Amino acid sequence: MPEGPSIVILREAVEALNIKGKKIDFAEGNSSKIDIDRLVDKKITDIRSWGKHFLICFDDFTLRIHFMLFGSYLINEKKKTAPRLTLEIKNNELNFYSCSVKFLEEPADKIYDWETDIMSDRWNPEKALAKLKSAPKMFACDALLDQDIFAGSGNIIKNEVLFRIRVNPLSLLGEIPEDKLEEMVAETRNYSFDFLEWKKEFTLKKHWLAHTKKICPRCNIPFVKEYLGKSKRRSYFCTNCQIFYGKPVVRKKKVALV
């Protein structure tokens, strides 16, 4: 699933085409969720992104592209498989595959809270911290995937941030010290921009310290790989250097019947 930094790369690439203010000449695709013909002759007023959503804005509605788990796109190229949506604007072509396509009838500013977007200039760390404090029973791994707290954060960011700040993914937010929660907020933002830089260099995977790794680079012992939290997404973590903040689980003893 593309995470926030990857959507920023898409947004910047589309912005570089200078299609803002131009009309869509042609639209087609196999999406049954929207009236594709509605897009033809519509003037693009803005290109935006929020979290994992790519947005093409028009005067009276916004086209939202969400890439889900397996979505992708090509600019001025095509795959052999049929696109979910194709847009032709002047001499440029945008192709979107295996994604969710939707029209938003309200202005984007009424729908999205830009202060929750980890890549936004309007990112508000104080708001993120307050939301973490308000959910004391939430697991750390779930918090970092919660788009209402960290819009744009995904599984890579989750695993790498928790490793950076040395927190076990099953730690409860209410048990984590406040300074460590502040570190979680700060490093989510920091790592996201590292992610962006490395992704542009095509070196992202070379910089992974925890995600998909088998050995902890700090402790030189095997990582644990488990599907944790409500989302059951893959977590890679070290039981030695990543501290568990929480109450021990008391397991009831089984009583043998005689």
UniProtKB/TrEMBL annotation:
| Residues covered by the Formamidopyrimidine-DNA glycosylase catalytic domain | 2-104
List the SUPFAM superfamilies. Answer: N-terminal domain of MutM-like DNA repair proteins, S13-like H2TH domain
Reaction(s) the record says it catalyses: Hydrolysis of DNA containing ring-opened 7-methylguanine residues, releasing 2,6-diamino-4-hydroxy-5-(N-methyl)formamidopyrimidine
| Transferase keyword on record | no
State any single GO MF term: endonuclease activity
Question: Do you know which InterPro entries this protein is assigned to?
Answer: FPG_cat, FPG_N, H2TH_FPG, Ribosomal_uS13-like_H2TH
| Pfam families from the UniProt entry | Fapy_DNA_glyco (PF01149)
Keywords in alphabetical order, please.
DNA damage, DNA repair, DNA-binding, Endonuclease, Glycosidase, Hydrolase, Lyase, Multifunctional enzyme, Nuclease
Report the sequence similarity comment from the record: Belongs to the FPG family.
- Full protein name: Endonuclease
* Protein species of origin: Dyadobacter subterraneus
